[in-house]
Design brief:
This protein has 85 residues and is mainly beta. The protein contains one helix and six strands, in the order E-E-E-H-E-E-E. A four-stranded antiparallel beta sheet has the order 3-4-5-6, with no helix packed on it. Strands 1-2 form a two-stranded antiparallel ribbon.
Length: 85
Amino acid sequence: MRIPCPICGTRDRREFTYKGAAVLLDRPSPEADAASWDAYLHLRDNPAGRTRDLWFHDAGCAAWLVVERDTISHEIFGAELLDAD
């Protein structure tokens, strides 16, 4: 799989580290029960098909990217720099 880094150009997937889905998770309050914390820490969707994921270009420019890809075909539709705002 080749990822198009907006800074470095298209690179092999081995230059990047996958960090998970590019969605905000609802963090439980510190007083939440154990079941809420267990769900927050351990339960994640595992969709088949098109996703938006966070990748870190650790063997390149050290940028955080949002990569849109298909988890079935491994097709990459694009990548953009993570907007930290």
